[in-house]
Amino acid sequence: MTLSFDDILAARDRLQGHIERTPCRHSRTLSEITGADVWVKFENLQFTAAYKERGALNALLQLGENARKRGVIAASAGNHSQGLAYHAARLGIPVTIVMPRGTPFVKVQQTRAHGAEVVLDGDGYDEASGTARKLCDERELTFVHPFNDVKVMAGQGTVALEMLEEVPDLEVLPIPIGGGGLIAGMATVAKHIKSDISIVGVEPAMYPSFTAKMRGMNTAASPHASTIAEGIAVKEVGDETYAIARPLIDEVLLIEEPYFERAIALYANVEKTVAEGAGSAALAALLAHPKKFKGKKCGLVITGGNIDTRLLASVLTRELVRDQRLVSLRIIGDDRPGLLATVSAVIGQMGANIIEVAHNRLALDVPAKGAEFDIMIETRDAQHAQEVMDALREHGYPPRAV
């Protein structure tokens, strides 16, 4: 199995008019934060909010007439399933998606809404994939692999083609690695157009599948590992994608969870756009390794925006805590009328906002005639939080952060 630049040019021609040519924009603020010259490709603006449409559609458009009539099948609990389902329905091609039984209901519902028959089977991707292969043989369907397919890789490669047409002097492409389809396609394009461009793979530290394969090791992911970048949490990279991508990759970085969270929050707060964990991986790499990218012109792809709204809310709130814009303080004082009012007045005079208060008289480390308050306050930043704490201390109510 080989992938050529001509394959990707042909894919670009097939996809034209069927998908969004998403914008690639310079981010002055992210450049200031990271120290790199940051350009962002907004693939979360595709109809199904992810780049996966490109590869899925390129594979569908090359089916023969009989294969179209019989239909296609895939195993996926993520963006590949939605992209394949959406475009298959648009083209009048029957589609079956096998998802693990534990797939969140919202993803099942969205895939069904695109017209797919959804089969729930297996406890994980591997078991779901086995079921899909079995159904593929029984029903004489065409299996569309989420990454280990040259047609799919060629479709994904059009992302880099568009980026380098718009910003030809990009110096570095940090690219998320899950199964390897995106980096195989993008690296093929980038190295053909600009041989000195640097290709940097990005993996979650919990799922170092590509890194492990480079080192000749089994993937070290724990069976209970849970990453916010679940879209690239793959136990084993594809054999074909690895063979194509490995010679083209300059380096692979392993990223810890807090950097994914911070990247999601920055995209929301700075670019006013929603990115899922895997979709924020390129920016997470810049945050985790600023020295590697400092001063370089970097092309970042927001590969997807399908994040659960409750998870997004949690990530944004946790970022406020990291920045000390939300601070929990514990104050111990005499249990007498007016104590809480006095403390509240001090906090208010300092310009902070009280979010919630917990009042505990039964804690054994508090005097019997005392009371313990846990107060969550909202501040401007870490310096403002310290000013509030200093003011409380001056009034005789020394707090401690909890």
Provide a descriptive summary of the structure in words:
With 402 residues, the chain is α/β, with parallel strands linked by helices. It has helices spanning 5-15, 28-34, 52-60, 65-70, 79-91, 105-113, 125-139, 150-166, 181-193, 209-214, 239-245, 257-269, 281-288, 290-293, 309-322, 339-349, 382-394, and strands at residues 24-26, 37-42, 72-75, 95-99, 117-120, 142-143, 172-176, 198-204, 251-255, 297-302, 326-334, 353-360, 370-378, 400-401. It has 3 domains: 5-51 and 149-318, Rossmann fold; 72-140, Rossmann fold, CATH 3.40.50; 323-401, ACT domain (Alpha-Beta Plaits, 2-Layer Sandwich), CATH 3.30.70.260. It contains 17 helices and 14 strands. The protein has a 4-stranded parallel β-sheet with strand order 5-4-3-6, with helices on both faces. A 4-stranded antiparallel β-sheet has the order 12-13-11-14. Helix 1 (5-15) packs across helix 8 and helix 3 (52-60) crosses helix 8 (150-166). The model has no long low-confidence stretch (mean pLDDT 92).
Shape: elongated
Question: If strands are numbered along the chain, what order do they take across the biggest sheet?
Answer: 5-4-3-6
Runs in which pLDDT lies below 50 for 5 or more consecutive residues are none
CATH class of the largest domain: Alpha Beta
What fold name goes in the CATH topology slot of the largest domain?
Answer: Rossmann fold
Indicate the mean pLDDT: 92
Number of strands: 14
* Residue share in β-strands: 15-25%
User: How many helix segments?
Assistant: 17
The biggest beta sheet, please? 4 strands, parallel
Structural class of the helix and strand makeup? alpha/beta
The CATH architecture of the largest domain can be given as: 3-Layer(aba) Sandwich
Q: Helical content, roughly?
A: 40-55%
**Distance from first to last alpha carbon:** 56 Å
Q: Structurally, how many domains make up the residues?
A: 3
| Rg calc | 25 Å
Organism: Phenylobacterium soli
EC number: 4.3.1.19
Cofactor: pyridoxal 5'-phosphate
Family: Belongs to the serine/threonine dehydratase family.
